[in-house]
Design goal:
By secondary structure, the chain is an all-alpha fold. The chain has one domain (about 5-215). The protein has helices at about 5-15, 20-30, 35-75, 75-95, 115-125, 130-145, 150-160, 165-175, 180-195, 195-215.
Amino acid sequence: MSTETLLYIGILALLDMFSPAIIGVTVYVLLAGKENQTKLIITYLTTVIAFYFCVGVFLMFGLDIVFNPIVNALSSNTAKTLMFTIGSILFIGSWFVPKKKAAESPKPKAFKVSAMIAFGITTSLLEVATAIPYFASIGLMISNKFSYYEWLPVLIGYNVIMVVPALVLLLLHILFRRFMKKPLRNLQALFQKNTSSALSWIMFFVGLIMIASSGNIG
C-alpha cells in the first residue's frame, strides 16, 4: 500500500464529497423539516454510509475473486494500458457531458426515521451506478493488491469523508439556524442547476487520476 495510491484515493474521496443527492437531501430536510432534523439527517447519512460500505466490501471480495486470475495472467504493461485507456475515456468524455435542464433533488415522503432509512437505501440504489470516484478507488485498491486489513479502514474512511459536507451543513444549521435559510436555498439552487457540470468535473479528475496511477501498477 503506497502513499501515492492512498493520495489518489483521498482525492477521489474528496470528489465524492460533492454528491448532489446527499447534499440535496440534507439541505431539503434542513429547510423543510419542522423537528428532529438532526436525528433524521444522521439516520439518512448513516444509511448511505452503510449502503456504500456494503457495496464496497462486496466489490472488493467479488471483483478480487473474479479478476485476480485475469490480473495475474495479464502482463504489467497490459494492466497499465487498460488503466490508462479507461482514464483517457473518462477524461475525453468529460468534455462531452450533455447539458441537462435543472431538476429537483429527490425528497423523502415523510420526516420519520423509518422513511429516512428507506429513502437512504432508495437514493443510494439509484445513485450507485454513477459513483465513478468510488468505483475508481476500488479499482485502484484491487489493482494494487490491497490486503483486507488495508482496504477495510480505507473504505470506512472514504465513506465517512463522503458525507462530511452534509455534516458541516448540519452543524452550521444547529449553530446559526437564524442565518442559514438563505445560504441553504442558494446552495439548493446551485446544485440543481449544475448537476451535469459536476458530473463533467468528476469524470475529468477521475480520468486524470487513473491516467497518473496507471504507472504504479505492477
